[in-house]
Amino acid sequence: MSQTYTAVAVAVVVLATVLVGGFGLRISRTTSDFYVASRTVGPALNAAAISGEYLSAASFLGIAGLVLLHGPDMLWYPVGYTAGYLVLLVFVAAPLRRSGAYTLPDFAEGRLESRAVRRLVSLFVVGAGWLYLVPQLQGAGMTLKILTGAPGWFGGVLVALVVVVAVAAGGMRSITFVQAFQYWLKLTALLVPAIFLLLAWYGDDRPRPVLDLASTAAVRADHPLYATYGLIVATFLGTMGLPHVVVRFYTSPNGRAARRTTVAVLALIGAFYLLPPVYGALGRLYAPELPDGAAADAAVLLLPERAIGGLGGDLLGALVAGGAFAAFLSTASGLTMAVAGVLTQDVLPARGVRQFRLAAPLAIVVPLCGSLLVSDAPVADSVGMAFAVSASSFCPLLVLGIWWRGLTPPGAVAGLLLGGGLSFAATVLTVAGTVRSGWPHALLAWPAVWSVPVGFLAMVLVSLATRARIPAGTNAAMARFHLPEGLT
Amino acid sequence: MTGPSAPRREVVTGEPRRVRPLPRYRAQAEIQEQTALGGAYVRSLMRSQLRAALTVFAVLALTAGTLPLAFAALRDATAVWAVLGCAAYPLLTLGGWWYVRRAERNERDFARLVKGRPAP
């Protein structure tokens, strides 16, 4: 019975996404509309769109699952996802918008005047985007499998199809509306069931959830304190470099609006992240026996049925499933948009909206294959690796590029290759399962603690050694990044 | 379709370049011509903005750096839930709000500085 409700809820979300996207398509006319929504998106709409795009499967399902499984230390994930926006706000938001570039490769080329750096950055953007897309598609497959019994590949393929249609048809303008809509949908889908769950818990004479997990929590890492710091560094510094996050800032009308948008985003995602811990805590009470591993991600989906039951539980479960699907769709479309943008500009031979429409399927097919091949790791953990790569490559590039006149193209290349390359290699080794325990495993699974300093150091030292290569336009670029519009 | 010799099409996603209006203030002209004085103006703005950014970042880094140790020492799960599950979010938003006010004030001060002397 509940399967019917779930199928209906998912179908409604998919249909609404296509319809809102179609509405955007009708007003999406020019190339500038297509890529950057003509840079006219005000703070309120843009903040909802950024939040809608950012709150992925990892936020919607993964956090509650990890809290359920490993205890309150996992709450560092949502805190890190939010704090990352604060770091982005203070170091990057306004100058990045004022740089006038559209993608990270544009920024790198504009600042360093080097095609080689541009190509390398493109490579990393595509890599990080694909790394982040895999767990979204896996999560979609898992959700549909658990709730409706559909085969595991079906959810991922469905998400990929809807995303390609929405992205290829309407571009950024329509995606902006879709994602703003999906933020509010996700908030509702988590808030309403949470209220009913709390009422049910109150009605059960408020049994005390097991808050202290020292005894029950599954061992997550040999060195939990190190893992926590690895997580903090990766999420705090990695947010600013995520390809789908960066593109969003170019849609603001000016630097001041970009800053105000970011504060609104902080408030919106902060409000959302109050909810997953509720599910995690109640999950320990009502669904303690959930099998471990990836299946813990299903806690949010199964909780309404377990705790409330009956028709009400079924309906609330369907609402949550719809919200989860919105999460997969919005993050996947944002990432596909960003990766397809880079593919069109830097990889495919000719440019234009037609090529963009060809690039969109290409951007999602590769991670789709990846999600079908790789065995399922918990969603939030895989996402953490994409953050680590971004923190060790894009974060030094952006922060030093915006605030330090001494950065040179060879320095940037060295930092990207050493910081980003090493963290990427560590991710690959972890996923391949070559090292399984002890310090080597901890160091490889949470590489940010060492790879971020390596990236920064390599960039600074090599730049200092190649002072003669400081780009001629550095001073002009600094004035453009930092001066308020109207004074330049 | 077009022949192989057709020029490659370029997509323009940047803002249309407008003709720059003549500078209205002397400092604006100094900045545009990248004189030593103009450079000093830009550096002073960058310094004040970086100071605001580093203030927020230092508070954030100190808190995030010590909290895991504090939690490990306290061994009180309720405190972890209260801080990470609830209290962190309003504080982060408040930090962002403070920074935006500071940064916009820095920009206003800078604009006043630049507009202080009209162009000759």
TrEMBL record, chain A:
Q: Which PROSITE patterns match?
A: NA_SOLUT_SYMP_3
Question: Does Repeat count among this protein's keywords?
Answer: no
Query: This protein's superkingdom?
Result: Bacteria
Instruction: Supply one GO molecular-function term.
Output: acetate transmembrane transporter activity
- One GO BP: plasma membrane acetate transport
A GO cellular component term found in this entry reads: plasma membrane
Keyword list, A-Z: Cell membrane, Membrane, Symport, Transmembrane, Transmembrane helix, Transport
Q: Where in the cell is it found?
A: Cell membrane
- Matching InterPro entries: Na/Glc_symporter_sf, Na/solute_symporter, Sodium:Solute_Symporter
- How does this protein sit in the membrane? Multi-pass membrane protein
Question: One Pfam family for this entry, by name?
Answer: SSF
Main subcellular localisation: membrane
Q: Which Gene3D superfamilies match?
A: Sodium/glucose cotransporter
Which regions span the lipid bilayer?
6-25, 45-69, 75-96, 116-133, 153-171, 183-203, 226-250, 262-282, 315-344, 356-374, 386-404, 411-432, 444-465
Entry's family note: Belongs to the sodium:solute symporter (SSF) (TC 2.A.21) family.
Q: What is this protein called?
A: Cation acetate symporter
Taxonomy of origin reads: Bacteria, Bacillati, Actinomycetota, Actinomycetes, Kitasatosporales
UniProtKB/TrEMBL annotation, chain B:
Membrane-crossing residue ranges in chain numbering: 52-73, 79-100
Entry keywords, A to Z:
Membrane, Transmembrane, Transmembrane helix
- This chain's protein is named DUF485 domain-containing protein
Q: Species name for this entry?
A: Streptomyces corynorhini
